[in-house]
Amino acid sequence: MLYSTALTALLALPGASAQLNKLAQAAGKLYFGSATDNGELTDTAYLAILSDTDEFGQITPGNAQKWQYIEPSQGTFSYDSGDVIADLAATNGQLLRCHTLSAAERGRSTPLRQ
């Protein structure tokens, strides 16, 4: 993702430690979070920043918990990709926020749900 790469580069700069989650909480917000996808978790610099609870108090799986990944073929369910991100959040003491658990695939309903 272009934005993740840019964010990683920006936060890796000397003196760019804004502690976004701490600032959000000081302003009365519950957390400052980030969305991520499994492929991004192989980047160690990115993972270190994402796991820093001073920066991010919450993680949202970008695609791993969407229908086409949970049930790739009818009757075959796999939560493995989503579990990786959920486990990361739990290990770090971060909140997990999910979205679009049953969103239509690319704007249309999948045959499995019709």
Automatic annotation (TrEMBL):
It comes from the Eukaryota. It is found in: Secreted. Gene3D superfamilies: Glycosidases. Its main location: secreted. It is an enzyme of class 3 (hydrolase). GO terms for molecular function: endo-1,4-beta-xylanase activity. GO terms for cellular component: extracellular region. Its EC number is 3.2.1.8. InterPro entries: GH, GH10, GH10_dom. Keywords: Carbohydrate metabolism, Hydrolase, Polysaccharide degradation, Secreted, Signal, Xylan degradation. Residues 17-114 form the GH10 domain. Pathway: Glycan degradation; xylan degradation. PROSITE patterns: GH10_2. GO terms for biological process: xylan catabolic process. It catalyses: Endohydrolysis of (1->4)-beta-D-xylosidic linkages in xylans. Residues 1-18 form the signal peptide. Belongs to the glycosyl hydrolase 10 (cellulase F) family. This is endo-1,4-beta-xylanase.
